[in-house]
């Protein structure tokens, strides 16, 4: 559930602002003028298909790559004037993990503690605390190469937190993880935000953005094509519908006659009726079918979701459409 703010409270300061960020590789424009404003303490999702420019945005904002144009501030530090200030305030975990598989989880953590110049005793304390918090205490003394994908991601985030960053960039944190590990990762993100950390995540998964983000920007071909809350984005697309499927052509014909506002597909023997899927709307449709003496073989309700937004804005879905089936 995204974090919420009291309506009368002043807007929080920005953790990240970017204006007109541009980047090209050769003659290929990868970012074509990206504007962002991410309030401190919120979760922001940059949602886009492969090659949209998500990782490039993260690399620029985390000072790993220089932009060709535009400017940005992260944690109040300008990327160009104060890259060290930016680096001191952020943590980044990417698709290419910082975890060294040849050493143990604990050794990876202690290495990070050394990089942050923590005194030895303090480093051990922080490492042990974070390993426990991320459910890695039992495997702390085993080489990280034997960890599962989810464990490696958790270790990666734990390593990032050694520096106590106020802003964390998570580049596709759940790509390749099984559903359980994805949910664990979502829990971790929520916990971070509860502690006041700002989370900037990139994702190809609409449900992930929907689940976690206060605001979502949809990026496609290096441009932000829409930005808003999940609800605002869903309002951009036409409403849902109720779909009836028949096996008997006669029943299909009778139902079509009874439901004059239905869109009819004679080949598939389906009817598609605009509607919000509310109980009242469903009852009205079923009553009309009953009155006509026909019964549908399948009834599905489809409410607009981020898939639809994605489809409308980028010209293609990233995942198969999910339908909520209510009667079969
Ligand atoms: N160092 C580079 N040299 C040349 N092209 C690059 C370089 N880095 C990225 N690109 C190109 O820039 C485009 C955007 O890449 P980017 O990694 O930012 O996309 P992405 O949205 O993160 O996609 P993915 O989900 O696949 O990681 C891609 O077409 C990619 O091939």
UniProtKB/TrEMBL annotation:
Lineage per the UniProt record: Bacteria, Bacillati, Actinomycetota, Actinomycetes, Kitasatosporales
Name of the protein in its database record: ATP-binding cassette domain-containing protein
Keyword terms of this UniProt record: Antibiotic resistance, ATP-binding, Cell membrane, Membrane, Nucleotide-binding, Translocase, Transport
GO MF, any single term: ATP binding
Main location: membrane
Highest taxon, organism lineage: Bacteria
Source organism: Kitasatospora purpeofusca
Residue ranges occupied by any ABC transporter domain in the UniProt entry: 16-246
Similarity comment: family membership: Belongs to the ABC transporter superfamily. Drug exporter-1 (DrugE1) (TC 3.A.1.105) family.
